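INFO batch 0412 | record 1 of 1 | parsing
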Amino acid sequence: MYKAYIFDLYGTLVDIRTNEDKRFLWTKMSELYTSLGARYGARDLKVRFLALVVQENAEPDLRKVFGQLYLEKGVPCDGGMARMTALFFRTLSRQYLRVYDGVKETLRELAARGKERYLLSNAQGDFTRPELEMTGLSECFDGILLSSEEGCRKPSPAFFDRLLKRYGLLAGECLMVGNDEMTDIGGACLAGMDSLYIHTATSPRYQGRYRPTYQVMDGDWGKVAAILCGQDG
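INFO prediction complete | emitting tokens
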């Protein structure tokens, strides 16, 4: 029925837990900055980081934020140094990361059936691309679009349209799969695309504002696979 399947990542294909408020994170970040010549206390660094994020546009590129924190202390910072800092931050803040059972098998089955698979995620490239490698998902897609790299995010129709145009797809031949009613299902609706909503432990509260074409409310990827692969169970 569908030519292509478009997936959200976090909370849909992988379970991830992060904590960006813990004191340990900001203590270690301040130690990193200070060791490289940009002296910050842990609290001051956190406050300034959050202020710079707010100043960014609707989809901030955190590499720029981390780089700006060096520059404000008179420390030159190139892209490599900013990326290293972003990776350090994510490693410290990440508490848990795993692929949901059945995800990889389903993606492989779709490929075997000649279906195209795409990732459309509101995510930071410096965080997400290494995590795709860590989880073994990087080679499971025919195309990957991340909001920080594209300068737009779900539920904006522009983000969906960019994927459609880049890969020569039509909205009516695609199914969006996601765990967020507003960004994934709402975005698909605005883009004229069918959708599958999967409610997982990290999903925002479901409000029933948008009506997905399919839904799995217990996070069971076996049921998702049955829908995507056209099986009965």
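INFO post-check: The longest helix spans residues 79-93.
INFO record closed
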